[in-house]
Amino acid sequence: MSEETAILDVQGVSLQFGGVRALSDVTFSVAKGELFAIIGPNGAGKTSMMNCISGRYTPTEGRVIFKGREVTGLKPNQRADLGIGRTFQNLALFGHMSVLDNIMVGRHHLLKNGFLRGALYWGLAQREELAHRRDVEDIIDFLEITHIRKAMAGTLPYGLRKRVELARAIALNPDLILLDEPMAGMNLEEKEDMARFIIDLNEEWGISVIMIEHDMGVVMDISHRVAVLDFGQKIAEGLPDEIMNNPRVKTAYLGEDDGGLVFTDDDEEVA
C-alpha cells in the first residue's frame, strides 16, 4: 500500500515493559476509508497496539506514520489535533456530567477562540460555540441518543454509555477512529445497532476505522481487512475470508465450535 493511499502506517513497532515484550516488530497499513480490525486471543497485544497508535504508549522500537507524518513521539492530545479519535475498552466518561457536556468535551481541542479573545470579541466566540453545538447535535441525532442528551452519563445503562463514548470520539472530528471493543458487554440488539453505526461512520462520514472486537461474527461481517496478533506478533493479515480459513489462525488463536470461530477469553493486555 502506498503512502498516498494509507492513512496509517505502523512500521516495525515493538513495545517492552521491563522484561515483558508486549509487541514485537509489528507492521501493517490502513488505507484511507478502510474499516480495519485487529483480533487475537487474551494478551495478544491488541490494546497495547492501540495505545501506541493513540500516543498513550511510545514504542520501544519502530515508527507510527499518520497521514504521511511521523507521530511516534507525539502526545495523545497532539495526535487528536491531527485527527486521531479513540474509545476505550473501559469506559472513560465523566459520570457527573450530562451526555451533551461529555460530547462537548470532545470538541474542546477544536475551539479557536481563547478566553481573552472571547472576552474582547464575544460575538466570534458565541458563533463558534453555536457552530460546535450544531455539530454535536448532528452526532447525537446520528447515534440516536437525543432522548438522553440531558441525562447524567453515570446513570445510563452500559450500552448507552458505550454509545456516548463513541459520540465523544466522533466529536473530535477525526480522520481515523480507534475503537477498543466497542461492543463488549452488549446484548444482541445493542451490538446490531453499534455495528450499523460503525458502518455508517465509515461509509457515510468517511472516517477510517481501526477496531478491536471479540465478536467474530461482527468482525467478519463488517471489516474490510483483518490483522491477527498473538503474544505481540502479527501472524496473519488479509480479507475476512482469508483469516477465517487460515490454518494458523484457527489452531493458534481461535477456538473451533461446530465449524465456527469464536474467542474463548476476554482480552486483558499486558501493561
Question: What structural keywords apply?
Answer:
271 residues; alpha/beta; Rossmann fold; six-stranded mixed beta sheet; 10 helices; 36% helix; globular; disordered C terminus; BCA_ABC_TP_C; ATP-binding; ATP-binding cassette domain-containing protein; AAA+_ATPase; transport
Continuous helix count: 10
Helix content: 25-40%
Report the strand count: 12
> Which stretches are poorly predicted, pLDDT < 50 over at least 5 residues?
262-271
Apparent shape: globular
Organism: Roseospira navarrensis
GO molecular function, one term: ATP binding
InterPro entries: AAA+_ATPase, ABC_AA/LPS_Transport, ABC_transporter-like_ATP-bd, BCA_ABC_TP_C, P-loop_NTPase
Protein name: ATP-binding cassette domain-containing protein
List the helices and strands and how they pair.
Elements: E1 6-17, E2 20-31, E3 35-39, H1 46-54, E4 61-66, E5 69-70, H2 76-82, E6 84-86, H3 99-105, H4 115-120, H5 122-142, H6 158-171, E7 176-180, H7 188-203, E8 208-212, H8 216-222, E9 225-230, E10 233-238, H9 240-244, H10 247-252, E11 255-257, E12 260-262
Parallel strand pairs: 3-8, 3-9, 6-7, 7-8
Antiparallel strand pairs: 1-2, 1-4, 4-5, 9-10, 11-12
Helix pairs in contact: 3-6
Keywords: ATP-binding, Nucleotide-binding, Transport
GO cellular component, one term: plasma membrane
GO molecular function: ATP binding; ATP hydrolysis activity
